[in-house]
Design brief:
The structure is a homodimer. By secondary structure, chain A is an all-alpha fold. Helices cover 75% and strands 0% of the residues of chain A. Chain A folds into two domains: 47 residues, Arc Repressor Mutant, subunit A, CATH 1.10.10; 137 residues, Tetracycline Repressor, domain 2 (Orthogonal Bundle). The interface between A and B is medium-sized, with 30 and 30 residues. Chains A, B: GO terms for molecular function: DNA-binding transcription factor activity; transcription cis-regulatory region binding. Chains A, B: It holds the Pfam family TetR_N.
Chain lengths: 204, 204
């Protein structure tokens, strides 16, 4: 019916550029005025596109928010991976995971508060981007456990899944933006003492 | 200037009754209509007192909310203490602390949602009642650690304060109503696996 509606896979480079342009402008706009109170009409007016034109590329405001959120979470994953990659031991990887995740989240809160608010909405409502992010963090924890068990650093009696889940539950209040805002006072204490407690629990 | 303003210590039994009456009615009213969107005027109208009369007993809406919140937190503490009191070992006390706290919080969420919302506001804004509650939970954790160390159940190398803090940080997302609402899906998993991990970390 509508020739303008295409699936992502058939979109040409030009359409891709327009999507990027909308995202870039929306990131600036939401970053200034906030996400929850801004409508697609406000956004369209501010960036000089028609509302209908924006809807050709994105189904909803949330679809735009999702891309912004995914981009930001990808940046956080880069920080986390960079922090972990060079760690000499599994124990040190675990410490760096806690530190980098909570620092990256706090930085976003203190330096980009309005974008943090998108992450908080996304976490509260468990958007797909947030679910995927949490699964990635969960997978990193599991890999650290496997490495540490193989290297003889960690005990092997506890079922791997149970140990990984419990550690993920301990880290989650610092991963999930909706919760992190209530834990900002204790972030640095948590980033030091939580991995220390976990490492005591992992002693062979 | 105003003869009707008295300090709490000089209030007679009759005034005490009126305070109780206001709290009882406010608990019902907020429990039905919610706390955040209800004004003292709404409340006064609903319970048949004048707004000025209510203000003779409470400085603000928050002062009323504080009493309701304290009452509810006292009920939760009773549940927690009853669960812990009869536990045969420090390890079992720790397990029951996690279970009772998270069950009491979830019960409030699922069965008294509007009163839960008061607790969530109180936790978000760290009302004195919530701070006192968190200190009480922190003190229970410390006492369990002392008991377990004396009984030879727990290691004694880690500074007591550090161990107690770390355990409190792990439990806090289930104590703090503002955070608990994001953890409802994993409450029962958390209540089983988190104390298990902590107990592994406490092994002598």
């Amino acid at each position: 019916m509508n020739e303008n509606i295409t699936t992502p896979s058939t979109r040409g480079p030009q359409e891709h550029d327009v999507r990027d342009q909308v995202i870039e402008a929306a990131t600036r706009h939401f970053g200034h005025y906030g996400y929850e109170k801004t409508t697609v009409s406000d956004l369209a007016k501010a960036i000089g596109f028609s509302k209908a034109y924006i809807y050709k590329f994105f189904d909803s405001k949330q679809a735009i928010g999702e891309v912004i959120c995914s981009n930001r979470l990808a940046m956080i994953m880069e920080i986390v991976n960079a922090a972990i990659d060079q760690a000499p031991t599994a124990s040190e990887k675990l410490r760096r995971l806690f530190r980098s995740i909570s620092e990256a989240g706090s930085d976003l809160f203190f330096h980009d508060r309005k974008l943090y608010d998108i992450a908080a909405v996304a976490s509260r409502d468990q958007w797909p981007s947030v679910q995927a992010h949490e699964l990635r963090i969960r997978a990193i924890i599991q890999q650290i456990l496997v490495d540490g068990r193989e290297a003889g650093e960690f005990e092997r009696k506890t079922p791997l899944d149970e140990a990984a889940n419990a550690i993920f539950l301990i880290l989650r209040p610092y991963v999930n933006a909706a919760q992190l805002q209530y834990n900002l006072d204790t972030v640095s204490e948590a980033a030091a003492h939580l991995p220390a407690l976990i490492l005591r629990s992992l002693a062979p």
